[in-house]
Amino acid sequence: MDLLLVGLNHKTASVEVREKLYYTAEETEKILPEISRSFLKEAVLLSTCNRTELYGILKSEEIKPEQLIDFLIDKKEAVGIVSPSHFYIMRSYDAVRHLLEVASGIDSMLIGDVQILGQVKDAYEIAVKCGVVGTLLHEVFHTAFRTGKRAKSETSISEGAVSISYAAVELAEKIFADLSKKKGMLIGAGETAELTAKHLVAHGISELYIANRTIERAQKLAEQFNGKVIKLEEIADKLTEVDIIISSVTVNNYILTFPQVKNALSKRGNKPILIIDIGVPRNVEPRIKDIENVFLEDIDSLESIAKANYERRLNEIPKVQRIIDEELKKLIKWYESHQVAPTIKLLRDRFEEIRQLELEKYRNKFSPEDFQKVDALTKSLVNKLLHVPTVNIRESSNGKPESEKIKFIQFVRELFGLEQK
Amino acid sequence: MILQTPKLVSIPKTNYIYIRKTNNSTAVLLVLKIFKIILPILYITTSWLYGRAFFKDKPTARRLKTKFLVFTLSLHFVYLIIKTAELKHPPVTSVFELLNVLGFSLALAYIIIESATKIKNTGFFAILVSTIFVIVSGIFSRDIYGFEYDVLKNEFLALHITSALVGYSAFALSAIYGFLYIMLYNKIKSKTFDTVYKNLPNLEKIELMLCKSITVGFIALTFVIIVGFILLPKAFESFSYTDAKLIGTFIIWLVYGIGLGLRKTVNLPGKKTAFMSIISFILVFILMAFANAMSGFHRFY
């Protein structure tokens, strides 16, 4: 297979290098026709925050992969920051395997990253739009989509929160059945707290109160999350109605005390309450955790959830590898069946099968001697009929680029109904 | 709903002593013996599959567990049908026969809940209890065929027994959900975020399923008591309102009734409700064991 891959990722390049070589969708659309004119017959450029990879089929053997690397660096004016040593070059099935690993999320910085499959699809769509995708890349990328989909549905590679902010939401979902019926309260506006609030809102939390020392900041967050601003003094009163509290404010004294929470819990009919304290020093009196139906968690709990989930994802890698092996085998089978020699053999076998079937129908109508003559006659007839197509298939494929060759073979197979076989 | 009381008048007065000797086919008896050996093995295998799926996250176990449970339940159903045909009445004449049917109805109740809620991760505990019931029943039940109990052929009594089975299965399920609630509650409180934590549904859902089970059980037991109080005096000559089983059932009904009432009135937290469901079910076992031993007319062996 003539497939070539040149690229860099989080394993070979630092973030400074990766961001320098990052191609936006618009830039990709501009650069692909240029690559297609100068270097590749087919090309897909996958560029994300963690990788920039160019998949394609070289126009001629004279073109070297290093030329492509230099081109990618020059286009981003990244000489001096990005060097060829950051790149890896892969060919044929190694390149396919790598793409399947990328699409299934096991090559990501965060194993099981769900976004990558969408990014691979987007890269492919742009290449299709630019008209630089042929039969081979079409098949290779569709194998990658299928692999990514299977990895997600057949394994737990993408399951469980692996970021702290998401772990908080996961924890809330382990206590409450329906977040859309729950209210939240954000105290302070630290980065993690803000991200957690964002995830809670995305999970449909019904109402979000925001309390912050700086009212302007609180108002900004309230606009962002469609929440309601409250004063810090109002926090205790709101305890009776909110179910999830995220606190990350810098205070000298506890912002939530044992008597406040204990009192609020009896007023709220003992309904459970989740308090996530990510403030330093701690915002919530620790002995609150002893109150029944109060779940007090801190940054360590969230980290341990994220860590446990990540370990579970790592254990899923062998299962994903098995899916990749299966899909790769299917692709190899498809590729080999689209080569000239197997197609000619299939064509001859099909004609021979038809000949034998027809011959069997007349076996009892001829004497053994006559039957032998008919057998020889039909054999010769089939050979003569197939001679010209066989020669033409061989000659038409000679010197043709791989993608065109595959297209031609595909046509022959459809013409003679060999696919159904 | 008004009960069709006129029909009850026609119920013949019988006594459990009034039995007839019947002939049994040896082939059928052999089939029943084979079933008695196979069923515990099938239940153990199903529990094992559910356990592997829950504790080890094994994909094969996850894929096969429900199918295997359906297979086990189907065979168990066939066994109960053959046994009923052979006995000429439902197999509910002893505590151990009842345990067998209870094991079946508990597993059946679980699979109905599993398909209705799509929560497939609580099966291990329910099926484990079913397995224990089936094993205990298999070891201790005496296979006495060849006697017919006329009283057990009455369709109203069949209704009485079925309601009792539904009720006690629901109580068993509530205890299982209570156990799961406490387990998950403690895991979150102690910050143990392991596979068990990951595989359990959320606290509110478990609590909801627990409360629904108790409600179904309570309604079924109410029905058992009503039907029993109307029917039994007509069916048994030796009927007594002070029979141990009647008192025992009434105490159980009262305990669950008070529990449901308390939950509504004093906003009982989930953990306390869970504890109560477990303690109540233990009480069911103790009371039923005593009641069976002391009951007069309400026993058949």
The CATH class name of the largest domain in chain A reads: Alpha Beta
The CATH architecture of the largest domain in chain A would be: 2-Layer Sandwich
The name of the CATH topology of the largest domain in chain A is Beta Polymerase, domain 2
Q: Poorly predicted ranges of chain A (pLDDT <50, ≥5 residues)?
A: none
The name of the CATH superfamily of the largest domain in chain A reads: Glutamyl-tRNA reductase, N-terminal domain
- Span of the ends, CA to CA of chain A: 24 Å
Radius of gyration of chain A: 32 Å
Shape of chain B: flat
- The share of residues in extended strands of chain B comes to under 5%
- Round the mean pLDDT of chain A to the nearest integer and report it: 87
Oligomer: heterodimer
- Give start-end ranges of low-pLDDT stretches of chain B: 1-20
Q: Describe the biggest sheet of chain B?
A: 2 strands, antiparallel
- Tally of domains of chain A: 3
Rounded to an integer, what's the Rg of chain B over CA atoms?
20 Å
Gross morphology of chain A is elongated
Count of strand segments of chain B: 2
